[in-house]
Every structure is written in C-alpha cells, then in structure tokens.
Design a protein that fits this description.
About 30% of the residues lie in helices and about 30% in strands. By secondary structure, it is of the alpha/beta class.
Length: about 230
C-alpha cells in the first residue's frame, strides 16, 4: 500500500485555512500532519490575526495536529519573514512533508508570491479552495457548521462594531457593499473554534476590543485551561 503524501496547512487560525483543511481531509489523497503558523514573538500571538498562542495550541489539539510555529519579530521586514519561512519549510521537508495547503481564494498576486517563495524549497503549494465563488463559499462554511469569530478587521472597509461578531449569515448581511464575504482582500480575519474539522469545540470567552496600527482587534481567550 502506497503511503499518502504528507502535507501541512498554512494556518492563521481562521476560516479559510480551516475549510481548506476540511476539504483535503475529505478528499483523502493526502495526510495532513500539522499546522504552519507565523507567530509575532513580542506579542506571543498569531501574526496579523492577533490570536493568542494558547488558543492556537488548543486548535492543534482539537484537530489532532502538531503546530509548527514560525517566530518572527515586530516589525518584520519581508526579507526576515522570507528567511524564517524558508528555514521552517526546510525543516518540514526533512520530516517528509511534500506540500503546503493554502486557503487562498482568488488573489492572483498572493498565489504567485507563494509559488515563487516555495519554488526553491522542494515543496508543492496546494490551493483546494482556489476560484470558488466567495458568496457561495461563505454560506457553505456557515451551513457546514463552522464556528468562527471576527478577531481582526480593517475599519476603513468594515464597521468597527463588527469586531468580535460571529461569522454567520447575520454578519454577512451587515457587510458593506463591495466587501468580500470571505474577507479575501484583508477586510476582516477570523478565528475558528468549532466545525467539522475539529474533534470538539473550543470554549472561549471574549476579551477587550482595541485599535492598533490601523486595525481593530477583538481578543479571545480560552474559557478554561486545557490539559
């Protein structure tokens, strides 16, 4: 029996990565062995989304997957980020990983950047959600049982009052015209705490909502300490 290719998921704690993980698991052609996550070292939080590392680790446990953190400084010049990522991908390749799954949807420049970045690593990028119409995809996630909270948004595009809201049909209905329902242009970011990809839901409690560096962040913390 031929073993399946070993892959990791590029993981920011949000819905697109989670749904991409769900899709490749359902397809059964690869074996997902871990989550590749960038951590901003001074804050001890997931980069851009601002999610606490304790919550990231709880996701890993509920998914049955190892978390492979990529620590970066703040601020982080692009060359520093690329070097850290290249080193992380090299370590994964030495462990038998052959591909990285991305949750990208339609931004061609982002996809091309990832393909260039990975060209010299020996790993193949996979885009299982690519080209899916995002209004349909957002509803599919919600109807499929995904439980996610909006943890970061760009107040220039999305009302600040929506920070901390559940990603559901009510949230979609309140998005301004022109905002992508999956937030693919960076309008908002989410943290997933339940869904068909998890063995169990993660209990969280809301924290403070703050504005920092032009973005609004809604904190989440574990409702109780996990073993």
């Amino acid at each position: 029996m031929t073993s399946r290719p070993r892959v990791v998921v590029a993981w920011s704690t949000g819905k697109d990565g989670a749904w991409a993980l769900h899709q490749v698991r359902q397809g059964g052609e690869v074996e997902v062995v871990g989550l590749l996550t960038t951590i901003t070292r001074p804050f001890d939080r997931v980069s851009m989304h601002g999610v606490r590392t304790e919550l990231l680790e709880a996701q890993g446990r509920a998914l049955g997957l190892e978390v492979f953190p990529v620590p970066i400084p703040h601020p982080c010049p692009n060359e520093v980020y690329e070097r850290a990522m290249e080193e992380a991908l090299g370590r994964l390749r030495s462990r038998g990983v052959s591909s990285v799954v991305f949750g990208d949807l339609f931004l061609t420049d982002v996809r091309e950047y990832r393909e260039r970045q990975m060209a010299s690593t020996g790993l193949t990028p996979l885009f299982p959600l690519w080209g899916r119409p995002t209004p349909e995809l957002a509803r599919e996630m919600i109807d499929g049982g995904l439980d996610a909270t909006v943890v970061c948004l760009d107040p220039r595009q999305v009302p600040a009052r929506l920070a901390g809201r559940r990603f559901d049909r009510s949230f979609l209905a309140e998005l301004p015209e022109g905002v992508d329902p999956c937030g693919e242009r960076g309008e908002f970011h989410t943290c997933v705490t339940g869904g068909p990809m998890f063995s169990r839901a993660i209990e969280v409690r809301p924290g403070e909502v703050v504005e920092r560096e032009g973005f609004v962040f809604a904190d989440l913390a574990l409702a109780r300490r996990e073993p």
